[in-house]
Amino acid sequence: MTCGKQKPWKEIQAGHLVSGRTNGVLFDERGIFPQCYACNVCRQGMGAEYTLFIIENYGQGLVDELIQKRREAVSFTKEELKEMIEGYKVRIKEAGGTL
pTM score, two decimals? Predict the structure, then answer.
C-alpha cells in the first residue's frame, strides 16, 4: 500500500494511478494497487507518492501509457462484466478471502 500499512483485504480499496470511471484505465490492473481509506480518499490517492512508486517499479513508460489510455472511452457488455466479477471472486478466494 502507498502508506506501507498492513490491513485485512476487506479494509483495502483499489487505488488508481489515473482517476476516472468512464475511461480505459478503470479496470487496467497495471495502474491499480491497494490503498487504505486514508490514502485513497482522505489524501486523494497520494498521487505524487503513487506515481513515484509506479515509475520505480514499472517505469515511466507505463505511467505515460496509462495517462494516454485515460482518454479512451470504454464500455463493457453485460457478459464481459459478469466474467470480470467471476474472475475477481475466484482470485479473492484463492487469496484466502471470503465473499
Answer: 0.70
CA distances from 79 to 22, 38, 44, 84, 93 (A): 18, 34, 32, 9, 21
Which helix H or strand E contains 94, and what residues bound it?
helix 78-94
pLDDT in tens, 22-62: 677 888 888 888 888 988 888 887 888 888 988 998 899 99
* Domain boundaries, given as residue ranges, for the chain: 9-94
Count the helix, strand and coil residues of the chain and give each as a percent rounded to the nearest 5. 55, 10, 35
Can you list the positions of beta strands (E) in the chain? 13-16, 32-35
Q: Which helix (H) or strand (E) holds 59?
A: none
